[in-house]
Every structure is written in structure tokens, then in C-alpha cells.
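Changelog-linked ticket: glutamine example.
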Amino acid sequence: MTDIDHIVRKIAADMAQEQDRGRVADYIPGLACVDPNQFGIAVITADGTIHVAGDGDTLFSIQSISKVFALTIALGKVGDALWHRVGREPSGSAFNSIVQLEQEHGIPRNPFINAGAIVVSDVVLSGHRPREAIGEILRFLRQLAHDDTIFIDDDVARGEQDTGFRNAALVNYMRAFGNIHNPVEEVLGVYFHQCAIAMNCRQLAAAGRFLMMHGRDPVTGHSIVPPTRAKRINALMMMCGHYDGSGEFAFRVGMPGKSGVGGGILTVVPGVASIAVWSPGLNERGNSKIGSLALERLAAATGWSVFNSRG
Ligand code: GLN
């Protein structure tokens, strides 16, 4: 057993013992019914070795982690022109906040809060039918993970649609400022379906490898994005990936990461590892409570951090 294997197994065993597991998102039945006692972890290192422990093969709703992949597609389509429509600053407010949008004239602070991600979905949708845009996001994840079994959970997508009044408010509000170019129901359809993609930690860590490998797929050697773009997506994850908990996550973990209300977190240590953790209970900021703790332990045990020259 390697050191990393040992560390990952120890973390999974410790996390199983934790009592205070946070609260599972309960705005839709597809998330509310998930057992909070689960914890999974998958670590893929730069040499391609994979370490999985706990419930690392159990599927969960990736939710806002999809925002990283949709952003990658949108940047591929329109490049830096995206930044006329979305900012790059941490928001310091909740993931579904609407207040900043008025002050900032319908330009969301960053692509990882809901408003910003909805603009990104609008960019991915432009020139396509909604079904094609959703298919493009799903195909991209399957390609990155080298796994054609990845799918969209229709129950979760329906739940999002039935309860997504705030997201509907955000998209309509931005449309009033001219920052949404497609019909609002179609944009929401794309956004809700990308949130409803189901993956496990193993698949998610695999999908994150291009961000660890400076934009390349380590399996095929093909370029997914140029190195500068990979670096910038990582920078955005570091500053904005945990909403108003981003500073705390950087302080405790020190790796670019993106969370979702399904309880997943994807983090990367450039040149070193792509990591996915999952535990459904959330902290006050809507980020996985046990998942964050596990990453803090992993960072401490390995020395992995972008703020550490041993990184
Ligand atoms: N589907 C969720 C929403 O739009 C995603 C939010 C999240 O994962 N933080 O409200």
C-alpha cells in the first residue's frame, strides 16, 4: 500500500466516525432523500494512479460542480469575450443571491455563482437547440472521464425545474439588462440539466485531470484547453469555487476547488493530483461539511497546496 493509499483510507475511516455531518440539501426530493452518513473520496495523481475509498463509487448529483465544465465549454466557444458578460471577482454572497446583480447592472460577479453560471449556460446554448447544448455538456464530461455511463438524473432535473424560482428570477433579471440572449426557459433548461448530472468520485476526479495536467488529457495526451486557460479556471475555482466560503476553503485547504449542493467537491493540485470528495451534509454556506474536512486532512497529510512549494 502506498502512502497516498494509506492516507486516503485513513481519511475515509475517520470521516465515517464524524458526528456533526451538516444538513443535506432539501429543496428537492432527489437530494433530500440522500443518506448523510456517506462519504467518498477519489484521488488521481499525475502518474495516473487512482486511490478510491469509502463511497467513492456511489453516484451523487454534481450540481454546481458542473459550472466548471460548462465554463470550459463556453470559453472554448467565445474566449475572452465571455468576460464582458461575467466578472471574475469573488462575490462574498450566497450562491443564489440576487442583490449584487442590481448594483452591477446584470453582470454577475463570477461564473460560479448561479447568476454567472446561468450566463455561461446561455453562451453554451447559443446556436443550438437546448437538447444539443445539454448533450454537449454531458458528452464533454464523458470524454474527460473516459466513461460513457455518465448520465443526467431526470428526477433531479425535474425537481430543479419545479422549485427553481430564484434561478428563474435571476435569469429574467439578467435578461432585462440584455445579458441573456436566448429564451429564459431554454437557458434554465440547460442549467437545470447540467446540475442534474450524476457522477461518482472516481468519475469526477477523472474529469478534473485536465485541470491538474495544464489543460491536457493525460490518457490521450490531447489538449483540452491551452495551459493558460487551465491556470485561469483554477484561479477562478480558488477565488470563487465555494461562494461566500471561498476564503475559508483557501485558508483551510489551499487548493482550487468547486463545490455543489449535492455534497461533492472537485479540487486540483496542478501537476500533482485531481481529487473528488463527496458527503451530502452541507455547512451554512452550502458546501459539503465532511468533504471540506476531509480535504483539509488530505492537505495536511500530503503537504499538497498551491501555497506550498512542496505542492
Ligand atoms: N441546482 C442548484 C441551484 O441552482 C445548484 C446550486 C449549488 O450546487 N450550489 O440552486
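Closing comment: Example verified and attached. The chain has a mean pLDDT of 97. Strands lie at 23-24, 40-45, 50-54, 60-61, 151-152, 197-199, 257-259, 264-269, 273-278, 281-282.
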